[in-house]
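Troubleshooting entry. The earlier prediction with XIL gave an output that would not parse, so I re-checked the input for stray whitespace and re-submitted. Clean input:
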Amino acid sequence: MTRPRTTVIALAAGLLAAAGSFVVLSPADAASTLGSAAAAKGRYFGTAVAAYKLSDSVYSGILNREFTSVTPENEMKWDATEPTQGSFNYSSADTIVNRAITNGQKVRGHALAWHSQQPGWAQNLSGTALRNAMVNHVTQVATHYRGKIDSWDVVNEAFADGGNGARRDSNLQRTGNDWIEVAFRTARAADSTAKLCYNDYNTDGQNAKSNAVYAMVQDFKARGVPIDCVGFQSHFNSASPLPSDYQANLQRFANLGVDVQITELDIEGSGTAQANSYAAVVRACLAVTRCNGITVWGIRDTDSWRASGTPLLFDGSGNPKAAYSATLTALGATTDPSTSPPTSPSTSPSASPSTSPSTPSGSGCTASVSVNAWTGGFVATVKVTAGATRLSGWTVGLTLPSGSAVSNTWSATASGTTGAVSFTNVAYNGAVNPAATTEFGFQGTGTAPSTTPTCTAR
Ligand code: XIL
C-alpha cells in the first residue's frame, strides 16, 4: 500500500531566466515563518488549536501566518465526539478541520483511543461492551474524517511511567492486551489514507517506557499490524528536561520503518535557555530524515495547558519570543522579520539588501510546490516569490500528469482542470513586495504534479 508522503519540489522558473532553465532559490527567498521554513526542509510546523479561540484575531492571525498543520487540542477526543453512546458530534472538530483545509494546512487527528477524556458512559463500560464501543468509535470518527487527516493518533498514552515498561492500567487495557492493535486495524479499515500513529509522553529519550513502545512497534511491523508513525509529545520542564539522546531515540524508531513526529512540544522556561532547547529539538528533527513534522501544543503562552510555565513560542500578546527566533533559525530560515536570533546574533542577515549577495534579482517571480499526496489524490501548496520588483499580479503554470485533475483551488483562480493548468492571483494576494511571498493551493485527484511550475508577473 502506498502511504501518504510529503515531498517538496523546490523548483523555480525565473521570468528573466532563459526559457526552460531553472534558477536556484537565493537566500533572500528563504522562508521567514515557521511553516515556510519547515516546508523548505520538507516538513510541517504545526500547533494545537482550540476551536473557541478561532474568533480571536491575534490568535487566528498567527495561526494563518506561521503554521502549516493543526491538531485539535480537545475537539476530537472521545468525550467531545461521542458524548452519548452512538451519537456523534463533530461540530467543533469540523470547524478546525475545514478551516485548516481551506488554508492549506494539514490536520493531525488526536486521538481515537485513550484512557483519558472519555465520556462518562465509556468510563462505565468494560469487557466486550467497551471493546465494541471502542471499535465503533474508531470506525465512525476515522470514517467521518477520511481523506482529511494527515496523521491520526490512533492510540494515546497506553504505557505506564516507571521502570518496568508495562502497559498503563485502564479500562481499555483491561479489555485485553490486543486493544491497541485492534484500534490500529480498525482505523486502517476506516481510513486507508491517513498515517496511523502511536503517541506518548516520557518516551522522548531511551528509557523503559520508550523501550516498551519500541518493542511494540517492532512487533507490529513484524506481524503486519498497520502502524506508520510514532508521536513524541515532548512536554519538557525542569523535572522532565529535553533528553540528551532525543535525536538518537527518534532515529532508532525511524529505523523500524515508521515516521516520527514531534506532536505536542512545549518547553517550560524563558529566555535563552528555553530558546536553546527549542532549537535543539528542531535540529534533532531535521537530523532524522523520517522526522516529518513538529507540532507545538498551543500558540501563545496564555493558550497553553501549562500557561504558568510560559512554554510556547509567542507571549500572551502574540509577540514572538526568543524561543520563536531560535526555532526559526534552527529551521534554517535566513530572514527573521521580528527579532535577532538569541543564540547566534552574528548570523543575522545583512541589514542592507542593496549590498547583500542575497539581493533578489530579476523582475519576475518564482514558484515552488509542496505536495502532500496519498493514493488517488493530493494537496499542492504553491509559494509565489517576487523578484526584485514588486508584483501587481502573477500567474503560475503547472502541468498535471495524465489522469490527474484539479478539484478545488484556494487563494487563486484556476484556468483548466487537467493537463496544463494556470493559476492567477485573486484580488487580495496579487500584490507581492520584492522578495516577499504569497501562497495558494489546490486539491486534486490522481497523481500529484512533479514538473517545474512557471511564474509570470503581470
Ligand atoms: C490537554 C489539553 O491541552 C487540555 O486543554 C486538556 O484540558 C487536557 O488535555 N497529552 C495529550 C493531550 O495527548 O491531549 C493533552 O492535552 C496534553 C497531554
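This one parsed fine. The chain has eleven helices and 18 strands.
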